[in-house]
């Protein structure tokens, strides 16, 4: 039954890695794999976000729905999400989410007692689980550390009050964008830029300059001594084809040849802060594996076909 | 008010099979697989992997309608293979590729973080 294997062994090289950003090269695979990873990172890696809000008191200027929507959009640290259950298939509760396996409870109580406006922020949300808390952006941003502010939910004046209970659940970006862990995920083909040296040498220095300047991004440079045109940064090329048009208009088609390497991709992944960007890539790989597992043929389909198979063999004259 | 539930896009309804298989009645070694609640993510990688198989004469997928959350993968193979065999092989190969990718990425993470520890 086993046919030959057509498996590939992709190569990875990380160029830059920060908590919320990774840039890496993916080689020896094709665009379908790169795109599948991108799509999974955007909308299928689970995170945790507030999904249900019960408002006890709300005398603020914003209505209940408005505040609920804002609460939903607050990023919550979601390292736990991969091991949590979706509340719709949680056995421990009826799916209205109050058990530890599928939900996290938050409380918010704020009342303004002074003449000073009170900012209600994500820092006022009290979580029942210390691993699931509003993401803290304070140290990375250039703000004063003394002024550690969360995300503003609403502002209260004297006498106004907000009291609510919120339930955060696991979800995916396909359901609602608030569950998307990715700010941006992009990939580009690595460009290969070849300069026709003979043709390039037939240009005057001024022509070379205008050629180099025709690229909106800095791809080429002229060596100040030898006046030779070289590629400094092939990846700065945005596939805008401006240099090709320029070469054409100078009557030198074929001056440069630019081809995308079809098995080589440069990825940039930015996370919203709910999980590390590197973890996001790993989770995406796991999710894609789970998805593939789910689309395997079930046993009864194979059996049903086996009966057919005999007929088929008969038809083929076997 | 009467909008369908959002989860209908990715939860297979009860009583329906995730993957159903239908042989072509006119061509030997041709079949279509209907995969419920999947989209271009799975469709395209499976199709491209099938193209790598020499015994596959045709492999394609379609998303019949953006509001019908299913894809149809059609496979035609030579008599050396069968659509079902090719399909299983493609999924196994992709699965192993992702295993490899995960290991490669983890190795890169530790290599990269070590370099910055020094």
Describe what this molecule looks like in 3D.
- The complex is a heterodimer of chains A (318) and B (118).
- Chain A is of the alpha+beta class and 318 residues long.
- Chain A is 25% helix and 30% strand.
- Chain A is built from seven helices and twelve strands.
- In chain A, helix 1 packs across helix 6.
- Chain A starts with 10 loop residues before the first strand and ends with a helix.
- Chain B has one domain (6-117): RNA polymerase, RBP11-like subunit (Gyrase A, domain 2, 2-Layer Sandwich), CATH 3.30.1360.
- In chain B, helix 1 (40-51) packs across helix 2.
- The chains are: A alpha+beta (318), B alpha+beta (118).
Layout of strands and helices, then pairs:
The complex is a heterodimer of chains A (318) and B (118).
Chain A lengths: L10 E8 L2 E7 L3 H13 L3 E12 L5 H9 L30 E9 L6 E4 L4 E2 L24 E5 L4 E11 L10 E14 L1 H5 L3 H10 L5 E3 L6 E3 L10 H8 L6 E16 L5 H18 L4 H17 L3
Antiparallel strand pairs in A: 1-2, 2-12, 3-8, 4-6, 4-8, 5-7, 9-12, 10-11
Chain B lengths: L18 E5 L6 E7 L3 H12 L4 E7 L7 E8 L5 H35 L1
Antiparallel strand pairs in B: 1-2, 2-4, 3-4
List keywords for this structure.
heterodimer; A: 318 residues; alpha+beta; 4-stranded antiparallel sheet; 7 helices; B: 118 residues; Gyrase A, domain 2; flat
